[in-house]
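User: Hey, quick favor. My workstation is busy. Could you predict this chain's structure for me?
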Amino acid sequence: MRFEAVICAAGGGTRMGKNKALCQLSSDETFLSSIVSSIRSISHDAPIAVVIGAQAEEVKSIHRSLCDDPNLFWVENLSWQSTHMLDSLMLGLYALPRHCIALHWPVDCIGIAPADIARLIEAPDAPFAVLSFQGTPGHPLRISANKADWMRDNAASFQSLKQIIHDDKRIFVESNTFAIVNCNDPNRLAQIQQLRDKTPTTT
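Assistant: No problem, here it is.
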């Protein structure tokens, strides 16, 4: 099924103490590169918008290999210090084609198995589908093609994504493997790395 993705990576990572797009998940992958790799494992040409802000040039420099991907687009949120996640999401959506299912993926949402991404994309149609783990909803968030286009036309009327999804139908897709949401401090990252060492790889 055709889809596109917006990776929101504009923040400075205050709680983490480092820009999360630059954080190392392992010796050879950052948070950002691991997410792109997961997406590319199920689609080699899905359009991806990476919304950056803090240390934008450094993020692109560290991820030179991503610059070779013809379907990956760097989108800069110049107002990253004073805007919210919805603003970055919309910048990404505006940079991508209409009429397409969209994944909203914060850069601190790591450890998601490609098989779970595929299940999320292929879940029954609804304005929003949410990946959950042990009953707790998180990210990525799948936005239907119709809803993504509606957001492009109407998001200026809202201050947050929660306002948009509040009264709309959501379905939940339970992850088959451990799913980590909001890795925004060093202690959580250490826990994730320990879990990854103990958890068999699922594709």
